[in-house]
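Issue: ligand-bound run for flavin-adenine dinucleotide - logging full I/O for the record.

Environment: standard queue, default settings, no custom constraints.

Inputs:
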Amino acid sequence: MTYPLVIIGGGLAGLIAALEMARAGIRVLVIERKSYPHHKVCGEYISNEVRPYLHSLGFMPEEFSSAELTQFRFTSPKGSVLDHPLDLGGFGLSRYTMDEALYKLALRAGVEFLVNTSVTEVEFRDTFFEIKTSDNQAFRAQIVHGAFGKRTRLDKQLNRKFMAKESPYVGVKYHIRGNFDRQRISLHNFENGYCGMSAIEDDKFCLCYLTERNMVRKYGSISALETNILSQNPHLKNIFEEAEFLYQKPEVINEISFEPKSCVENHILMAGDSAGLITPLCGNGMAMAIRAAFLLSQELVRYFKVHHSRALLEKSYETAWQKEFSRRLTIGRTVQKLFGRKVLSELALHFFTLTPPLLHQVIKSTHGRVMSVPTIYTGS
Ligand SMILES: Cc1cc2nc3c(=O)[nH]c(=O)nc-3n(C[C@H](O)[C@H](O)[C@H](O)COP(=O)(O)OP(=O)(O)OC[C@H]3O[C@@H](n4cnc5c(N)ncnc54)[C@H](O)[C@@H]3O)c2cc1C
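Outputs:
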């Protein structure tokens, strides 16, 4: 079967691009490894920079009782506290709910889906792509959009550079209930890691942390690490003692890489984490995935409706992507170095307490402007 566009991965980037394509009347197939709904390791705080845009697509987080997040708390491993209002703020909604809602919107808009199916191979052959899947199906596509997230076997098949470098990071997530502030997103530091907590729908909270694999090895298990290290921060100790944990076991992902990637590789156009993952402490990887999918959709509509060349499509997408994201990613990587180090994060906390405008500036520079409600060029 041949499609003008195949999207590999139906997370945020893939679903948004698919919706935009369907709205522009371009036939699209999304191939997604899992079925909907499913849990994902993610802090589930979504910056308001994309809220008006999501509304314009017909997705209303408020209809799912999302939480309104307006305050930020930073704590050091010893438990010192810095509170700061969030100018722009955001909302809290689980990926379980959000991805499924976008999937349903996309289905209604006419997007074709192949779920529970992994893409195992993509090959570019001069003018088209050949795509093979885990259930031995084969597809052809004029354009392939890679929206397959942080790291997948496909990255290896495509020989992507960042795969050569081992990544030490592990992500762990829970949904919990408890008597905590529902307007505040907290970032609690501990030795070699940090843990975010913020409210989501149905009186729940998302508790999600990033640490290094050797910490889990050193203590023998995730729960031993939580007891011995995370709980040294009194705020985390309180959460682990007081909260009701709603999963049998946590969601865990390994090998999280923050290495620079390329947004066009083997002629595949990447958006979201497959183009570059911002460090989670910045709290806006999802907004970036949504914004990147929109940027790409604009270029794709021009390509299909005005018949631009592939070279022009790749060049103009790369330029737009770099302009929008490369500075944010660099700042995110730099700021991450301050966190999870006992002395450094204590110093950073005291420094930012004395200079609130600087903290304000750091938060601002890792986020984008609010997306105005856009109209994609349709060629008519
Ligand atoms: C610990 C942690 C905490 C975070 N917290 C936040 C936060 O609070 N706020 C925020 O904004 N961002 C956060 N992020 C970042 C955010 O989760 C990502 O930036 C966002 O999910 C990117 O969306 P995406 O569409 O690129 O990838 P994903 O949402 O991961 O989607 C990729 C999809 O591709 C599918 N897939 C993979 N391989 C294949 C294949 N071969 N074939 C078919 N399908 C495939 C996967 O199943 C998946 O559904 C966090 C990240 C981490 C690691």
